[in-house]
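Quick check before the chapter quiz. The format below is the same one you will see on the exam, so make sure you can read both the input and the output lines.
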Amino acid sequence: MPTLAFPPFVRLGVFVASGLLLGACGGDDGPDEAAPQAATCPSAVPATARCLQGQDSAGAYYLIAMPQDWNGHLVLHAHGGPSLDAPTMERATEDLTRWAVMVKAGYAWAGSTFRQGGVEVRAAAEDTERLRRIFREHVARPQRTILHGQSWGAGVAAKAAEMFTAETVGSQPYDAVLLTSGVLAGGTRSYDFRTDLRVVYQYLCNNHPRPGEAQYPLNIGLPAGATMTQADLNARTAECLGLNLPAAQRTPAQQAKVDTITRVVRIPASAIQSHLNWGTFHFQDVVARRTGGASPFGNTGAVYSGSADDAALNAGVARYRADPAAVQRFAADTDPTGRIPVPVLSTKWISDPTAFVELDAYFKQTMESGGSGARLVQTFTREGTHSYISDPTYPTLLAALLRWVEQGAKPAPAEIAQQCPGFEARFGAGCSFVPDYVPAALDTRVVPRDRP
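Here is the expected output.
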């Protein structure tokens, strides 16, 4: 197996002396994987970095970036979404472009596209672990490996940290876990509000499906063979809600319906379209491909409030009972158990409209019930977006995790907030941690309901 050629590392001598040899390194169990090939780095990555790419034995594409002045640590990235399309290398390039700050901070970075599109968490966790083995076999043996999950990928990372441990793989594969903007309540609870959105939207608009079209249970998203596109759905929301228009240009009837949705479902108007898309096409993927045709989503017992006539709304919305077997099957794939044996640090923008901050409150309960509560530190920021918070935020969190792992110094949110400004000189402004913020319980944001 050929040794890969890298530019000289400033600290290479230290790594070789420590046994961190670049090149072909074996030792992990699992199928043989082809060596990655040299690739052109995205322009956001430092010009001195070295990039490698490949496709693993399961079909997932991946991209690796090695900074010239490598600090010896690997960030193993699990991406968000998920996309329903077949994976392409472009997805890995987009991810590395977004997280280029980690390479600028001296970390090696490796990200998989996952082997397939769709809502399948365990498979994505397996693909992420496979990439860790590829990195160790063909690139380098990192001193520390930090598993990073973003958005839906935070659920993937949490599941991977439960699945792959010293007991299951022979040595501890991940030294710590970083969860950012995470969807952290598992599939059986994180998507409840999208069921609510589907039924409230249909009550108000009655065009998804239209009366003259084939009717189906809204909690399946779409029938398995349906060919509706996102453009089709956008046209329907434009017709009923005027989401394609500024608020001032909507009709009074359209704006009244938008206002009803924002109050009842408790999402901003700017997020209605994206959540309706997920509640349509991702629900279709889950039901048709993951849970045997039965839906794990339901709203029996949910009492909606915030409309002009709540009694009429609750009497008029469609009601669905989640299928118990489908719930069990979906939970086994997507729901965290809270049994993670390494330090976990999370962060979220307080106003995140995609992954509600209340999901983090539920995750904390899960970690406590799973016996890992002492290994979790949660942080929150005043500024940001769902997709990215700010450049100095991520190096701050990574540094805090490494201190926790190497020195046993569990960080307090206030300490992280104090340390962040020290990274702004190098990475630009953007520190906005709110150390005393505590999110409310999930059922204060998402209407409680009966569960099988």
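If your answer matched, good. The beta strands are 37-39, 50-55, 61-66, 73-78, 108-112, 144-150, 176-180, 344-349, 376-381.
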